[in-house]
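Predict structure. Input: 4-oxalomesaconate tautomerase, 360 residues.
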Amino acid sequence: MLMRGGTSKGAYFLAEDLPADPAVRDDLLPRVMGSPDPRQIDGLGGAHPLTSKVAVVSASAGPEADVDYLFLQVGVDTPEVSDRQNCGNLLAGVGPFAVERGLVAPTDGETSVRIRMLNTGDLAVATFPTPGGRVDYTGSAEISGVPGTAAPVVIEFPPGGSPLLPTGKVRDTIAGTPVTCVDNGMPTVLIAASSLKVTGYEDPEDLEGDPALADRLREIRLEAGPLMGLGDVEGTTVPKVSLLAAPLHGGAVMTRTFIPVRCHTSIGVLAAASVAAGLRIEGGVGQDVARLPAEGERLRIEHPTGFVDIEAGVEYGAEGAAPVAEGAAPVARRTAVVRTARKIFDGTVFPRPAGAAHHL
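Output follows.
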């Protein structure tokens, strides 16, 4: 099933319909998506990392979730397949897909699906309308970066087990640049855009076309990886790097997020969750540029094509009152966001034959 989830698009498969051997599966999926080819002309992919994604869904093996969701990022001009990160955008389609495929029985009105994200072990709960026991994709919810409106998918993330500050510090200096490293579902390095001699308001293509910036981002990512407990990140898309600037449209902050050097035309759900939590951390780099609403109010994260409204809070110690100076580590509270998803088509895909010659 091809679905739009949030501001991404991908192929959703039942795990049982794919090869059980990961190596065989990872040989198949680039041929399904049309990789390696910058146009992906011979497959389902849309010539961009945001449209070269795969969700693999199965009934959950444990009692805490209804379904298990494995996200796979398929390279566009490379045949690589990576499971090193989550995708909060495709996550928006997992619940509806699970109902469509009979993994979860819907209720009349709305259905909540408990989802385990296998890439990290984190949990999420997606709630969406199912009048008459059928998924309804139509509605009035609107998200930036997607034309028109659709039914809302409310995604709630309970606090995860990973430290919110994976380096143990509110601020680090990496490659000579002040940063805050955050993980509230997506390992993300927060940097004031001005620290890299850009405004943070540039068009994504202009940022991508800046070789000096690309070199700096790569240097920061490679140094941040081990500090964040991710090891060597040379061939991965995590951690994300998000440049922060003062908001332009009444939000909390303006962002430019890189995956890993392609500039996202919007921002992923989990990256937005990490940015939002990072802004709430006292002394973080985000507080130098952000305009924060009152505690408990949703934060509007601005991006190149609009905004994401997200609820994210941070507390210190059991009572939420201990200041940073006393050494209490910040902990993320409930995180929730409204997204949309839509079924585009349901059918059979015919991958390029194995071993077929392919030249860029």
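Helices lie at 22-33, 91-100, 204-208, 211-227, 269-279.
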